[in-house]
Amino acid sequence: MINSYFKFIRSGINTTYQDKGRENLYHIGIPYSGAMDNRNFLIANKLVNNNLNAPVLEFAYQGPHLKYQGDTIIIAITGDVIFKIIKNGVEYTGNCYESYQIENGDEIDIISTNKTIYGYLAIGGEIDIKFQWKSCSINTNAKIGSNNGKKLENNQTIKLLKLNSNKDKKKIDYTNSKVENIRVIKGTNFNYFSDEGIKIFFEKKFIVSKLSDRMGMRLQGNKINNVVNTNIKSEGLIKGVIQVPPDGNPIIMLSDHGTIGGYPKIGVVASVDYDRLVQITPGSEIKFTEIQLTDAETLFKLYEMDTDNLLSQI
Question: What is the SS3 string spanning 211-277?
Fold first, then answer.
């Protein structure tokens, strides 16, 4: 194999390496991180014959423009993404959920996501990358992970240590489903909020703020009234928990969230809705619906079974 690598002509917006993330480190203040949309992450790797936990490029809104040098390799892009493949100066429109052979001198121009936030580029091979606590996932707020915990920049390269021998073309018919009603279970401080505040939480719509990122999704809408205490002793947080600060506007903790926090927790997003939740764009409306813990567990098991079924079709 000759030296094979991709070079960033344009790095895109918030382009990072991600895998499934880091387990069992909450006690030292390290969150999971990892791919925001786990299903699209898994499908991308399966399309290029990678290990399902192999590093991928996650990008937000605008993706990278890359030029390739090396032996023939396969790539795949998942999400709702507009992109082109450029061969010998000729542009070809690419399709998500389909693998492509990329040859020496070819370019991949990931123009934008379409009415979603995150997309994924999987490369069929082993990337030369550093791991921290058994994961490559980059958390830019904490400066943790590969690339010194920083997002990727123009003119950087992605070096390949090994290319997958199976370069057969693969595809799957898959459509990203939209979600507006987010299913939640009651949080540990649910009784801190007035009857009117709880009614607002479950009956009114909220707007996703432009201030949202991988750390948290800030919402705007009718204020949720706290009748006990707007601050509590800092407690452990998990992905998907919904805090309500003193201004009454909920914040949903996402993949790079802090591991402790002192705002009361009104609810937790059911894991079954997390992949679709993170793809909701700023300015969109969402509404919360209460479900019981047992129902949330059953729904997530069904979602995992459906994901496994999709992967088996590739």
Answer: CCCCCEEEEECCCCCECCCCCCCCEECCCCEEECCCCCCCEEECCCCCCEECCCEEEEECHHHHHHH
